[in-house]
Predict the structure.
Amino acid sequence: MGQITGNLPASGNRPTVLIVGAGPAGLVLGNLLRAADIDCLILERQSRAHVEHRARAGYLAANTVRILTDNGLAAGLLRNGQQHDTCMFRTDHGSFELRYGSRGRGEVHTVYPQQDLVRDLIAEYLDRGGDIRFETRVRDLNDVDTNQPWATCEGADGEVHQRSCEYVAGCDGQHGISRSAVPADAAQRYRRDHGVSWLALLAQAPQSMAAVAYAVHANGFAGHMARSPSVTRYYLQCPRGHDPASWSHERIWEELHLRMRGELHGRLREGQILERGVVDMSSYVMDPIQYGRLFLVGDAASLISPSAAKGANLAVMEAEVLGKALVAHLKGDDEQQLRGYSAACLPRVWRAQEFSHWMINLLHGPMGDDDEAVFLRALQHARLESLRTSRSHQDFFAENYVGI
Ligand code: RFL
């Protein structure tokens, strides 16, 4: 690790906007700024190969597709993405399909792996003359409440530099450092641990059914979601603190078959497990998501559980709002949108949080056989039954499931 001694060397020109992180948030923002010919620099701590292969999200909301299309960033997803409009629920009381594409506002998802989107966004950003430095970690952000914010960053060679800029976009995800540049008394921080964990799996196997499947089982939740023609994401609810390596290949597929009720509805198409990790369902929201000249975007601003597949979609929504606001300010001398960035985004963040929380309660019944667990599972069944039979409940679901 590089050492800081005395004054740090200042490195390169001073970009107008310094973007920390090359995930969906930072890359969409960088592309919007470059389209308006605004000088920006993206610093990313991982290598290009790493971010271009990091599998995460896959379900893009209609608003995300609209933003990417409007800004010339959708060629790959329009060519290779799959439209998706149905989800399926499986319980001890039976199975039903909900064709959400014909309910609510009639919107559908586009399934396109996040790593493919990231690859497209990097290529386009470079085509637009964007500057991006991989394997460069931002250690801290300073003076963000002045006209001269600056960052300390460390390159792959261990050299430590200082970078100054006019504005900073903190797009460095849930484990980033940008949030910590906002003083404790300058923002309210809302946190919740939902007490549920998922073993997140990527299988080298085609999807087993033409729908997202959510299975509610006494052993816990199981999920099935398409990613690409040959790769499918599965989830298995697991105890907190679980070691993902403790699950053998056989045990994973046995448990997925059991919870998905393969004997009734058809066996799953098995394949090698390419990736596994445990995701603890938690939420985090800062209010406001701006401080001085620092603007937080995506998971850096608000973390959401993956129960309703909202995280990447919120990141793109916020990147569009901030991108437009920075262009209006820097090119049109209109600062109003920039001042209103946080107020424009947070109601949509909270709406997504509320629906994700609703989904967690829909999909996870309490374990055990005490009176309370039995009662709450009966309520869970009643909620699913209402979703199966009530047109207005289905409209509510569809509007919130795809909406951002
Ligand atoms: P990212 O994608 O985490 O990118 C942040 C980037 O910042 C870099 N970084 C730094 N760079 C320089 N200096 C530092 N100090 C840095 N610290 C961090 C990181 O290396 C990284 O490249 O955040 P962003 O752009 O806000 O995007 C958020 C989304 O990635 C995230 O919300 C989604 O992946 C969540 N999510 C899903 N979202 C959906 O909309 N639909 C889905 O279907 C969906 N499925 C998922 C998901 C997340 C999952 N996991 C892994 C939690 C499925 C899973 C399993």
Observations:
- Residues 1-6 have pLDDT under 50 and may be disordered.
- The CA atoms of residues 82 and 336 lie 38 Å apart.
- The longest helix spans residues 341-363.
